[in-house]
Amino acid sequence: MSKLPQGWVSVNIADVAEVNPRKSVDLSPDEFVTFVPMAAVSEITGAIATPMRRPLRQVNKGFTQFAENDVIFAKITPSMENGKAAVAANLTNGIGFGSTEFHVFRSKGAVLPKFLWYFIRQQSFRDNARKVMSGAVGQQRVPADYLRSHPLLLPPIQEQERIVAKIDNLISRSARARSELKKIPSLLAAYKSAVLELAFSGKLTANLRGSNSDTTSGLPEGWTIQRLGDISEIQSGIQVGKRRSGQEELVEVSYLRVANVQRGWLNLDEIKTIFVTPEEKARLLLAQGDVLMNEGGDRDKLGRGWVWNGEVDECIHQNHVFRIRMKPATLPPEFVSHFSNERGQQYFFDEGTQTTNLASISKRKVAALPLPVPPFEEAVEIVRRIERTFMWLDRVAASHGGASQLLEKLDTALLSKAFEGQLIPQNAGDEPASALLERVKAEFVAQPRKIQSRKQIYQGQTREKLMAIERTLEQVLTEAKNWLPAQDVFQRCGIGDGASTEEIERLYSELRDLDLAGKLETEAVNDDQGRKIYDRIRLKAV
Protein backbone atom coordinates (compact mmCIF):
# COMPACT_ATOMS: atom_id res chain seq x y z
CA MET A 1 0.00 0.00 0.00
CA SER A 2 1.37 3.41 -0.96
CA LYS A 3 -0.69 5.31 1.61
CA LEU A 4 -1.58 4.11 5.08
CA PRO A 5 -5.18 4.40 6.31
CA GLN A 6 -5.86 7.20 8.75
CA GLY A 7 -4.38 6.52 12.18
CA TRP A 8 -2.44 3.43 11.05
CA VAL A 9 1.31 2.91 11.39
CA SER A 10 3.74 0.44 9.81
CA VAL A 11 5.65 -1.64 12.36
CA ASN A 12 7.43 -4.95 12.69
CA ILE A 13 5.83 -7.65 14.81
CA ALA A 14 8.65 -7.27 17.36
CA ASP A 15 7.55 -3.65 17.91
CA VAL A 16 4.18 -4.77 19.25
CA ALA A 17 4.74 -8.30 20.55
CA GLU A 18 7.43 -10.30 22.28
CA VAL A 19 8.28 -13.41 20.29
CA ASN A 20 9.10 -16.37 22.55
CA PRO A 21 9.24 -14.48 25.87
CA ARG A 22 11.26 -16.00 28.69
CA LYS A 23 9.67 -18.56 30.99
CA SER A 24 8.22 -17.03 34.13
CA VAL A 25 5.87 -18.89 36.43
CA ASP A 26 4.94 -18.23 40.05
CA LEU A 27 3.23 -21.51 40.93
CA SER A 28 4.09 -24.45 43.15
CA PRO A 29 5.15 -27.68 41.38
CA ASP A 30 1.87 -29.43 42.23
CA GLU A 31 -0.43 -26.70 40.95
CA PHE A 32 -2.15 -27.43 37.66
CA VAL A 33 -1.61 -25.69 34.33
CA THR A 34 -3.03 -26.20 30.84
CA PHE A 35 -1.07 -28.49 28.52
CA VAL A 36 -1.47 -28.13 24.75
CA PRO A 37 0.13 -30.71 22.42
CA MET A 38 0.25 -29.82 18.74
CA ALA A 39 -2.68 -32.13 17.99
CA ALA A 40 -4.90 -30.13 20.36
CA VAL A 41 -4.88 -27.07 18.09
CA SER A 42 -7.52 -27.26 15.37
CA GLU A 43 -6.21 -26.31 11.96
CA ILE A 44 -9.79 -25.65 10.87
CA THR A 45 -11.01 -23.28 13.58
CA GLY A 46 -7.67 -22.20 15.02
CA ALA A 47 -8.88 -23.02 18.53
CA ILE A 48 -7.38 -25.15 21.29
CA ALA A 49 -9.91 -27.92 20.85
CA THR A 50 -8.69 -30.51 23.37
CA PRO A 51 -6.56 -28.92 26.12
CA MET A 52 -5.31 -31.03 29.03
CA ARG A 53 -4.51 -30.30 32.69
CA ARG A 54 -1.12 -31.26 34.08
CA PRO A 55 0.76 -30.54 37.32
CA LEU A 56 3.45 -27.93 36.74
CA ARG A 57 6.22 -30.35 37.74
CA GLN A 58 5.35 -32.60 34.76
CA VAL A 59 5.66 -29.91 32.09
CA ASN A 60 7.92 -27.17 33.47
CA LYS A 61 10.93 -28.56 31.62
CA GLY A 62 11.10 -29.53 27.97
CA PHE A 63 7.99 -27.66 26.82
CA THR A 64 7.09 -24.19 25.58
CA GLN A 65 5.43 -21.91 28.12
CA PHE A 66 2.75 -19.35 27.31
CA ALA A 67 0.26 -17.27 29.24
CA GLU A 68 -3.38 -16.21 28.98
CA ASN A 69 -3.99 -14.27 25.72
CA ASP A 70 -0.65 -15.22 24.19
CA VAL A 71 -0.83 -16.36 20.57
CA ILE A 72 0.77 -19.73 19.80
CA PHE A 73 1.91 -20.48 16.25
CA ALA A 74 3.17 -23.82 14.91
CA LYS A 75 6.66 -23.35 13.51
CA ILE A 76 7.23 -26.81 12.01
CA THR A 77 6.07 -28.29 8.72
CA PRO A 78 3.31 -29.30 7.95
CA SER A 79 1.52 -27.92 11.02
CA MET A 80 2.47 -24.34 10.15
CA GLU A 81 1.21 -24.60 6.56
CA ASN A 82 -2.00 -26.22 7.82
CA GLY A 83 -2.78 -23.21 10.00
CA LYS A 84 -2.20 -24.48 13.53
CA ALA A 85 -2.29 -21.25 15.55
CA ALA A 86 -4.47 -20.19 18.47
CA VAL A 87 -5.11 -17.54 21.08
CA ALA A 88 -4.39 -19.13 24.45
CA ALA A 89 -7.58 -18.59 26.47
CA ASN A 90 -9.12 -20.01 29.65
CA LEU A 91 -5.81 -21.47 30.78
CA THR A 92 -5.70 -23.15 34.17
CA ASN A 93 -4.07 -20.66 36.55
CA GLY A 94 -3.46 -18.46 33.51
CA ILE A 95 -0.48 -20.57 32.42
CA GLY A 96 -0.04 -23.03 29.58
CA PHE A 97 2.71 -25.33 28.35
CA GLY A 98 2.80 -27.03 24.99
CA SER A 99 4.82 -28.47 22.16
CA THR A 100 8.31 -27.11 21.66
CA GLU A 101 7.23 -26.62 18.04
CA PHE A 102 5.19 -23.55 18.99
CA HIS A 103 6.39 -19.97 18.64
CA VAL A 104 4.74 -17.66 21.19
CA PHE A 105 3.60 -14.07 20.59
CA ARG A 106 2.89 -11.89 23.63
CA SER A 107 1.29 -8.51 22.97
CA LYS A 108 3.03 -5.52 24.53
CA GLY A 109 -0.33 -3.72 24.59
CA ALA A 110 -0.58 -2.02 21.20
CA VAL A 111 -2.00 -5.01 19.33
CA LEU A 112 -4.99 -7.18 20.24
CA PRO A 113 -4.05 -10.88 20.48
CA LYS A 114 -6.94 -11.87 18.22
CA PHE A 115 -6.01 -9.21 15.65
CA LEU A 116 -2.48 -10.66 15.57
CA TRP A 117 -3.89 -14.19 15.43
CA TYR A 118 -6.03 -13.39 12.41
CA PHE A 119 -2.99 -11.77 10.79
CA ILE A 120 -0.73 -14.83 11.13
CA ARG A 121 -3.56 -17.18 10.14
CA GLN A 122 -3.73 -15.62 6.68
CA GLN A 123 -2.85 -18.01 3.88
CA SER A 124 -0.50 -15.41 2.41
CA PHE A 125 1.38 -15.13 5.73
CA ARG A 126 1.79 -18.90 5.92
CA ASP A 127 2.86 -19.12 2.27
CA ASN A 128 5.58 -16.54 2.85
CA ALA A 129 6.68 -18.20 6.09
CA ARG A 130 7.03 -21.51 4.26
CA LYS A 131 9.56 -19.92 1.90
CA VAL A 132 11.97 -19.09 4.75
CA MET A 133 11.76 -22.42 6.57
CA SER A 134 15.07 -24.12 7.27
CA GLY A 135 16.13 -27.54 8.49
CA ALA A 136 16.08 -31.14 7.33
CA VAL A 137 13.29 -32.41 5.11
CA GLY A 138 10.20 -33.05 7.24
CA GLN A 139 11.71 -31.05 10.12
CA GLN A 140 11.75 -27.58 8.61
CA ARG A 141 10.86 -24.68 10.87
CA VAL A 142 10.06 -20.97 10.63
CA PRO A 143 12.83 -18.91 12.29
CA ALA A 144 11.75 -16.65 15.15
CA ASP A 145 13.76 -13.78 13.66
CA TYR A 146 11.64 -13.91 10.53
CA LEU A 147 8.53 -13.43 12.65
CA ARG A 148 10.07 -10.61 14.67
CA SER A 149 11.01 -8.67 11.55
CA HIS A 150 7.78 -9.33 9.66
CA PRO A 151 5.97 -6.07 8.79
CA LEU A 152 2.51 -5.36 10.17
CA LEU A 153 0.17 -2.47 9.42
CA LEU A 154 -1.14 -1.48 12.84
CA PRO A 155 -4.53 0.26 13.21
CA PRO A 156 -5.68 2.21 16.27
CA ILE A 157 -6.65 -0.16 19.08
CA GLN A 158 -10.33 0.86 18.81
CA GLU A 159 -10.29 0.04 15.10
CA GLN A 160 -8.62 -3.30 15.83
CA GLU A 161 -11.59 -4.12 18.07
CA ARG A 162 -14.04 -3.24 15.29
CA ILE A 163 -12.02 -5.18 12.70
CA VAL A 164 -11.90 -8.29 14.91
CA ALA A 165 -15.65 -8.06 15.58
CA LYS A 166 -16.35 -7.71 11.85
CA ILE A 167 -14.09 -10.62 10.94
CA ASP A 168 -15.67 -12.76 13.68
CA ASN A 169 -19.12 -12.03 12.27
CA LEU A 170 -18.24 -12.66 8.63
CA ILE A 171 -16.14 -15.75 9.34
CA SER A 172 -18.92 -17.28 11.46
CA ARG A 173 -21.39 -16.68 8.64
CA SER A 174 -19.10 -18.28 6.07
CA ALA A 175 -18.51 -21.19 8.49
CA ARG A 176 -22.28 -21.74 8.75
CA ALA A 177 -22.56 -21.61 4.97
CA ARG A 178 -19.67 -24.07 4.65
CA SER A 179 -21.33 -26.40 7.15
CA GLU A 180 -24.56 -26.36 5.15
CA LEU A 181 -22.69 -26.88 1.88
CA LYS A 182 -20.96 -29.95 3.32
CA LYS A 183 -24.36 -31.59 3.71
CA ILE A 184 -25.20 -31.26 0.02
CA PRO A 185 -23.13 -34.19 -1.38
CA SER A 186 -24.76 -36.67 1.02
CA LEU A 187 -28.20 -35.18 0.29
CA LEU A 188 -27.61 -35.54 -3.45
CA ALA A 189 -26.48 -39.15 -3.01
CA ALA A 190 -29.60 -39.89 -0.95
CA TYR A 191 -31.75 -38.21 -3.61
CA LYS A 192 -30.20 -40.37 -6.34
CA SER A 193 -30.79 -43.50 -4.27
CA ALA A 194 -34.42 -42.50 -3.74
CA VAL A 195 -34.89 -41.95 -7.49
CA LEU A 196 -33.44 -45.38 -8.25
CA GLU A 197 -35.64 -47.00 -5.61
CA LEU A 198 -38.69 -45.45 -7.27
CA ALA A 199 -37.41 -46.57 -10.67
CA PHE A 200 -36.93 -50.24 -9.80
CA SER A 201 -40.21 -50.49 -7.89
CA GLY A 202 -42.15 -49.10 -10.86
CA LYS A 203 -43.29 -45.98 -9.01
CA LEU A 204 -41.21 -43.64 -11.17
CA THR A 205 -43.32 -44.58 -14.20
CA ALA A 206 -46.59 -45.37 -12.43
CA ASN A 207 -48.35 -42.67 -14.47
CA LEU A 208 -47.78 -44.72 -17.62
CA ARG A 209 -50.01 -47.46 -16.21
CA GLY A 210 -52.66 -45.24 -14.66
CA SER A 211 -51.94 -46.85 -11.26
CA ASN A 212 -49.25 -49.00 -9.79
CA SER A 213 -51.32 -52.07 -10.71
CA ASP A 214 -49.51 -54.32 -8.24
CA THR A 215 -49.90 -58.04 -8.76
CA THR A 216 -49.67 -60.72 -6.10
CA SER A 217 -45.91 -60.86 -6.78
CA GLY A 218 -45.55 -57.29 -5.58
CA LEU A 219 -44.42 -56.17 -9.03
CA PRO A 220 -46.22 -53.68 -11.28
CA GLU A 221 -48.40 -55.21 -13.93
CA GLY A 222 -46.34 -56.45 -16.86
CA TRP A 223 -43.12 -56.71 -14.87
CA THR A 224 -41.22 -59.95 -14.26
CA ILE A 225 -38.16 -61.08 -12.35
CA GLN A 226 -35.41 -62.62 -14.47
CA ARG A 227 -31.83 -63.66 -13.90
CA LEU A 228 -29.17 -61.55 -15.58
CA GLY A 229 -27.68 -64.60 -17.29
CA ASP A 230 -31.02 -65.36 -19.00
CA ILE A 231 -31.22 -61.98 -20.76
CA SER A 232 -27.53 -61.35 -21.52
CA GLU A 233 -24.22 -62.88 -22.53
CA ILE A 234 -21.54 -62.60 -19.82
CA GLN A 235 -17.89 -62.67 -20.83
CA SER A 236 -14.78 -62.73 -18.63
CA GLY A 237 -11.68 -60.87 -19.82
CA ILE A 238 -8.03 -61.43 -20.64
CA GLN A 239 -5.58 -62.58 -18.00
CA VAL A 240 -2.83 -59.99 -17.64
CA GLY A 241 0.64 -61.54 -17.47
CA LYS A 242 -0.44 -64.70 -19.27
CA ARG A 243 2.51 -66.79 -20.51
CA ARG A 244 2.85 -66.81 -24.29
CA SER A 245 4.73 -69.11 -26.62
CA GLY A 246 7.21 -67.39 -28.87
CA GLN A 247 5.37 -68.73 -31.93
CA GLU A 248 2.09 -66.86 -31.34
CA GLU A 249 1.12 -63.92 -33.51
CA LEU A 250 0.29 -61.03 -31.16
CA VAL A 251 -1.30 -57.62 -31.60
CA GLU A 252 -1.27 -54.68 -29.19
CA VAL A 253 -4.64 -53.47 -27.94
CA SER A 254 -5.99 -51.20 -25.19
CA TYR A 255 -7.68 -52.86 -22.22
CA LEU A 256 -9.76 -51.81 -19.21
CA ARG A 257 -8.71 -52.57 -15.63
CA VAL A 258 -10.70 -52.54 -12.39
CA ALA A 259 -9.43 -49.00 -11.74
CA ASN A 260 -11.06 -47.82 -14.97
CA VAL A 261 -14.50 -49.14 -14.01
CA GLN A 262 -16.08 -46.99 -11.31
CA ARG A 263 -19.59 -46.95 -9.90
CA GLY A 264 -21.69 -45.09 -12.47
CA TRP A 265 -18.78 -43.80 -14.57
CA LEU A 266 -15.57 -44.79 -16.33
CA ASN A 267 -12.18 -43.38 -15.38
CA LEU A 268 -10.26 -43.28 -18.64
CA ASP A 269 -7.38 -41.05 -17.51
CA GLU A 270 -4.94 -43.94 -17.88
CA ILE A 271 -5.55 -46.70 -20.41
CA LYS A 272 -2.96 -49.48 -20.59
CA THR A 273 -2.23 -51.80 -23.51
CA ILE A 274 -1.56 -55.52 -23.76
CA PHE A 275 -0.43 -57.98 -26.45
CA VAL A 276 -3.06 -60.62 -27.34
CA THR A 277 -3.77 -62.96 -30.20
CA PRO A 278 -6.10 -61.77 -32.98
CA GLU A 279 -8.63 -64.40 -31.83
CA GLU A 280 -8.59 -63.08 -28.24
CA LYS A 281 -8.98 -59.54 -29.49
CA ALA A 282 -11.99 -60.45 -31.61
CA ARG A 283 -13.61 -62.36 -28.74
CA LEU A 284 -13.10 -59.65 -26.11
CA LEU A 285 -13.53 -56.46 -28.12
CA LEU A 286 -15.97 -54.10 -26.43
CA ALA A 287 -19.01 -52.81 -28.30
CA GLN A 288 -21.18 -49.80 -27.60
CA GLY A 289 -23.80 -50.63 -24.98
CA ASP A 290 -21.78 -53.32 -23.20
CA VAL A 291 -22.23 -53.28 -19.42
CA LEU A 292 -18.91 -53.41 -17.55
CA MET A 293 -18.93 -54.93 -14.07
CA ASN A 294 -16.01 -55.52 -11.69
CA GLU A 295 -15.26 -59.10 -10.74
CA GLY A 296 -12.58 -58.46 -8.10
CA GLY A 297 -11.25 -55.91 -5.64
CA ASP A 298 -12.55 -54.69 -2.31
CA ARG A 299 -15.69 -56.56 -1.24
CA ASP A 300 -17.89 -53.45 -1.23
CA LYS A 301 -16.83 -52.68 -4.81
CA LEU A 302 -17.85 -55.99 -6.37
CA GLY A 303 -20.30 -55.54 -9.22
CA ARG A 304 -19.74 -51.82 -9.60
CA GLY A 305 -19.60 -50.55 -13.15
CA TRP A 306 -21.03 -48.59 -16.02
CA VAL A 307 -21.89 -48.74 -19.71
CA TRP A 308 -19.28 -48.70 -22.48
CA ASN A 309 -20.00 -46.16 -25.20
CA GLY A 310 -16.99 -46.66 -27.45
CA GLU A 311 -14.84 -44.04 -25.73
CA VAL A 312 -11.61 -45.78 -26.87
CA ASP A 313 -11.18 -47.42 -30.28
CA GLU A 314 -10.59 -51.17 -30.20
CA CYS A 315 -10.56 -51.85 -26.47
CA ILE A 316 -10.88 -55.12 -24.56
CA HIS A 317 -11.13 -55.87 -20.81
CA GLN A 318 -9.05 -57.81 -18.29
CA ASN A 319 -10.29 -60.89 -16.43
CA HIS A 320 -11.26 -58.90 -13.31
CA VAL A 321 -13.88 -57.02 -15.35
CA PHE A 322 -16.97 -58.76 -16.75
CA ARG A 323 -18.48 -57.71 -20.06
CA ILE A 324 -22.27 -58.10 -20.13
CA ARG A 325 -23.97 -57.80 -23.51
CA MET A 326 -27.76 -57.53 -23.31
CA LYS A 327 -29.94 -59.58 -25.63
CA PRO A 328 -32.13 -57.52 -27.97
CA ALA A 329 -35.34 -56.00 -26.54
CA THR A 330 -34.66 -57.16 -22.97
CA LEU A 331 -33.33 -54.25 -20.89
CA PRO A 332 -31.37 -51.10 -21.76
CA PRO A 333 -27.77 -51.47 -20.52
CA GLU A 334 -28.11 -48.32 -18.37
CA PHE A 335 -31.05 -49.92 -16.53
CA VAL A 336 -28.91 -52.95 -15.66
CA SER A 337 -25.93 -50.85 -14.58
CA HIS A 338 -28.01 -48.53 -12.39
CA PHE A 339 -29.67 -51.56 -10.78
CA SER A 340 -26.40 -53.39 -10.06
CA ASN A 341 -24.84 -50.22 -8.63
CA GLU A 342 -27.80 -49.58 -6.33
CA ARG A 343 -29.90 -52.60 -5.40
CA GLY A 344 -27.28 -55.09 -6.55
CA GLN A 345 -24.65 -53.90 -4.07
CA GLN A 346 -25.95 -56.03 -1.22
CA TYR A 347 -26.31 -59.08 -3.49
CA PHE A 348 -22.69 -58.88 -4.66
CA PHE A 349 -21.45 -58.27 -1.12
CA ASP A 350 -23.32 -61.33 0.18
CA GLU A 351 -22.45 -63.63 -2.73
CA GLY A 352 -18.78 -62.63 -3.12
CA THR A 353 -15.89 -64.68 -1.77
CA GLN A 354 -13.01 -63.25 0.23
CA THR A 355 -9.34 -64.20 0.30
CA THR A 356 -6.78 -62.48 2.52
CA ASN A 357 -6.34 -59.43 0.30
CA LEU A 358 -8.97 -59.70 -2.41
CA ALA A 359 -12.68 -60.29 -2.84
CA SER A 360 -14.22 -61.68 -6.01
CA ILE A 361 -17.49 -62.87 -7.45
CA SER A 362 -17.90 -65.68 -9.92
CA LYS A 363 -19.46 -65.49 -13.35
CA ARG A 364 -22.11 -67.95 -12.14
CA LYS A 365 -23.12 -65.65 -9.28
CA VAL A 366 -23.25 -62.63 -11.59
CA ALA A 367 -25.48 -64.58 -13.96
CA ALA A 368 -27.80 -65.41 -11.05
CA LEU A 369 -28.41 -61.73 -10.17
CA PRO A 370 -32.23 -61.29 -10.09
CA LEU A 371 -33.48 -58.23 -11.99
CA PRO A 372 -36.92 -56.60 -12.23
CA VAL A 373 -37.76 -56.52 -15.93
CA PRO A 374 -40.48 -54.12 -17.08
CA PRO A 375 -41.76 -53.98 -20.66
CA PHE A 376 -38.89 -52.74 -22.85
CA GLU A 377 -40.54 -49.40 -23.73
CA GLU A 378 -41.14 -48.67 -20.04
CA ALA A 379 -37.55 -49.61 -19.19
CA VAL A 380 -36.33 -47.11 -21.81
CA GLU A 381 -38.53 -44.41 -20.28
CA ILE A 382 -37.27 -45.27 -16.79
CA VAL A 383 -33.68 -44.76 -17.96
CA ARG A 384 -34.63 -41.45 -19.59
CA ARG A 385 -36.22 -40.17 -16.36
CA ILE A 386 -33.29 -41.35 -14.25
CA GLU A 387 -30.77 -39.62 -16.50
CA ARG A 388 -32.79 -36.40 -16.70
CA THR A 389 -32.99 -36.26 -12.89
CA PHE A 390 -29.31 -37.17 -12.46
CA MET A 391 -28.26 -34.45 -14.92
CA TRP A 392 -30.10 -31.88 -12.80
CA LEU A 393 -28.52 -33.26 -9.61
CA ASP A 394 -25.07 -33.15 -11.22
CA ARG A 395 -25.60 -29.47 -12.05
CA VAL A 396 -26.48 -28.87 -8.40
CA ALA A 397 -23.28 -30.71 -7.38
CA ALA A 398 -21.21 -28.56 -9.75
CA SER A 399 -22.76 -25.42 -8.29
CA HIS A 400 -21.97 -26.73 -4.81
CA GLY A 401 -18.32 -27.19 -5.74
CA GLY A 402 -18.14 -23.67 -7.12
CA ALA A 403 -19.78 -22.23 -4.02
CA SER A 404 -17.32 -24.05 -1.75
CA GLN A 405 -14.36 -22.67 -3.68
CA LEU A 406 -15.88 -19.20 -3.61
CA LEU A 407 -16.20 -19.35 0.18
CA GLU A 408 -12.48 -20.10 0.51
CA LYS A 409 -11.67 -17.14 -1.74
CA LEU A 410 -14.05 -14.91 0.21
CA ASP A 411 -12.34 -15.73 3.51
CA THR A 412 -8.94 -14.96 1.97
CA ALA A 413 -10.18 -11.68 0.48
CA LEU A 414 -11.86 -10.75 3.76
CA LEU A 415 -8.62 -11.02 5.75
CA SER A 416 -6.64 -9.25 3.04
CA LYS A 417 -9.02 -6.28 3.10
CA ALA A 418 -9.06 -6.25 6.90
CA PHE A 419 -5.28 -5.83 7.16
CA GLU A 420 -5.21 -3.17 4.46
CA GLY A 421 -7.80 -0.99 6.21
CA GLN A 422 -10.52 -1.66 3.64
CA LEU A 423 -12.93 -3.79 5.67
CA ILE A 424 -14.46 -1.06 7.83
CA PRO A 425 -14.31 2.76 7.73
CA GLN A 426 -11.78 4.62 9.87
CA ASN A 427 -12.93 6.78 12.78
CA ALA A 428 -11.22 10.16 13.10
CA GLY A 429 -11.81 10.07 16.86
CA ASP A 430 -9.63 6.98 17.37
CA GLU A 431 -6.27 7.53 19.03
CA PRO A 432 -3.63 7.06 16.29
CA ALA A 433 -1.74 3.80 16.54
CA SER A 434 1.56 5.71 16.61
CA ALA A 435 0.55 7.54 19.80
CA LEU A 436 -0.54 4.33 21.50
CA LEU A 437 2.63 2.60 20.34
CA GLU A 438 4.87 5.27 21.86
CA ARG A 439 2.96 5.18 25.12
CA VAL A 440 3.07 1.39 25.27
CA LYS A 441 6.80 1.39 24.55
CA ALA A 442 7.37 3.86 27.37
CA GLU A 443 5.24 1.82 29.75
CA PHE A 444 6.95 -1.40 28.68
CA VAL A 445 10.40 0.04 29.37
CA ALA A 446 9.25 1.57 32.67
CA GLN A 447 7.67 -1.63 33.97
CA PRO A 448 9.10 -2.61 37.35
CA ARG A 449 11.81 -5.20 36.87
CA LYS A 450 12.99 -7.70 39.39
CA ILE A 451 16.36 -6.25 40.46
CA GLN A 452 19.16 -8.77 40.75
CA SER A 453 22.54 -8.17 42.26
CA ARG A 454 25.60 -8.49 40.05
CA LYS A 455 26.45 -11.61 42.01
CA GLN A 456 23.02 -13.10 41.23
CA ILE A 457 23.31 -12.23 37.56
CA TYR A 458 26.73 -13.83 37.16
CA GLN A 459 26.29 -16.72 39.57
CA GLY A 460 26.95 -20.03 37.86
CA GLN A 461 28.00 -18.41 34.56
CA THR A 462 31.04 -19.75 32.72
CA ARG A 463 33.95 -17.45 31.95
CA GLU A 464 33.02 -17.57 28.26
CA LYS A 465 29.43 -16.60 29.05
CA LEU A 466 30.56 -13.69 31.23
CA MET A 467 32.84 -12.44 28.48
CA ALA A 468 30.03 -12.75 25.93
CA ILE A 469 27.69 -10.66 28.07
CA GLU A 470 30.17 -7.81 28.02
CA ARG A 471 30.89 -7.95 24.26
CA THR A 472 29.05 -5.66 21.91
CA LEU A 473 27.77 -6.55 18.47
CA GLU A 474 30.39 -4.34 16.83
CA GLN A 475 33.19 -6.06 18.76
CA VAL A 476 31.98 -9.51 17.67
CA LEU A 477 31.77 -8.51 14.00
CA THR A 478 35.13 -6.72 14.11
CA GLU A 479 36.81 -9.84 15.48
CA ALA A 480 35.15 -12.06 12.87
CA LYS A 481 36.40 -9.94 9.94
CA ASN A 482 33.98 -11.78 7.63
CA TRP A 483 30.42 -12.97 7.21
CA LEU A 484 28.76 -14.61 10.22
CA PRO A 485 25.34 -16.31 10.39
CA ALA A 486 23.01 -14.10 12.42
CA GLN A 487 22.41 -16.93 14.89
CA ASP A 488 26.16 -17.25 15.53
CA VAL A 489 26.41 -13.51 16.08
CA PHE A 490 23.62 -13.64 18.66
CA GLN A 491 25.31 -16.50 20.51
CA ARG A 492 28.68 -14.73 20.55
CA CYS A 493 26.93 -11.72 22.03
CA GLY A 494 25.51 -13.90 24.80
CA ILE A 495 22.00 -14.22 23.39
CA GLY A 496 20.87 -17.81 23.86
CA ASP A 497 17.69 -19.61 24.85
CA GLY A 498 17.82 -18.16 28.36
CA ALA A 499 18.45 -14.57 27.30
CA SER A 500 16.36 -11.88 28.92
CA THR A 501 14.11 -9.51 27.04
CA GLU A 502 16.45 -6.64 27.97
CA GLU A 503 19.46 -8.46 26.46
CA ILE A 504 17.59 -9.17 23.24
CA GLU A 505 16.37 -5.58 22.99
CA ARG A 506 19.92 -4.32 23.57
CA LEU A 507 21.21 -6.41 20.67
CA TYR A 508 18.45 -5.28 18.32
CA SER A 509 19.17 -1.69 19.32
CA GLU A 510 22.83 -2.18 18.38
CA LEU A 511 21.77 -3.72 15.05
CA ARG A 512 19.60 -0.72 14.24
CA ASP A 513 22.34 1.74 15.24
CA LEU A 514 24.95 0.03 13.06
CA ASP A 515 22.54 -0.19 10.15
CA LEU A 516 21.56 3.49 10.40
CA ALA A 517 25.26 4.41 10.55
CA GLY A 518 25.83 2.53 7.29
CA LYS A 519 28.26 0.10 8.93
CA LEU A 520 26.29 -3.12 8.45
CA GLU A 521 25.91 -5.50 5.51
CA THR A 522 23.28 -8.24 5.48
CA GLU A 523 22.81 -11.04 2.97
CA ALA A 524 20.38 -13.92 2.64
CA VAL A 525 21.78 -17.44 2.26
CA ASN A 526 19.55 -19.65 0.08
CA ASP A 527 19.39 -23.37 -0.63
CA ASP A 528 19.58 -24.99 -4.09
CA GLN A 529 15.89 -24.22 -4.73
CA GLY A 530 16.38 -20.54 -3.93
CA ARG A 531 14.65 -20.77 -0.55
CA LYS A 532 16.06 -18.63 2.22
CA ILE A 533 17.89 -20.62 4.91
CA TYR A 534 19.24 -17.85 7.12
CA ASP A 535 20.72 -14.34 7.13
CA ARG A 536 24.38 -13.55 7.54
CA ILE A 537 25.91 -10.21 8.51
CA ARG A 538 29.27 -8.43 8.60
CA LEU A 539 30.75 -4.98 9.07
CA LYS A 540 31.30 -3.00 5.92
CA ALA A 541 34.93 -2.57 4.96
CA VAL A 542 36.14 0.95 5.73
From TrEMBL:
InterPro entries in the cross-refs: Restrct_endonuc_typeI_TRD (IPR000055), Restrct_endonuc_typeI_TRD_sf (IPR044946), Type-I_RE_S_subunit (IPR051212)
Domain Type I restriction modification DNA specificity stretches:
5-173
The EC number(s) attached to this protein equal 3.1.21.3
Residues forming coiled coils: none
Where is the signal peptide, in residue numbers? none
One function term, GO molecular function aspect: type I site-specific deoxyribonuclease activity
Provide this UniProt record's keywords sorted from A to Z.
Answer: DNA-binding, Hydrolase, Restriction system
What does the similarity note say?
Belongs to the type-I restriction system S methylase family.
- The protein in question is named Putative type I restriction enzyme specificity subunit S
Q: What is the lineage of its organism?
A: Bacteria, Pseudomonadati, Pseudomonadota, Gammaproteobacteria, Pseudomonadales
Name of the gene encoding the protein in the UniProt record: hsdS
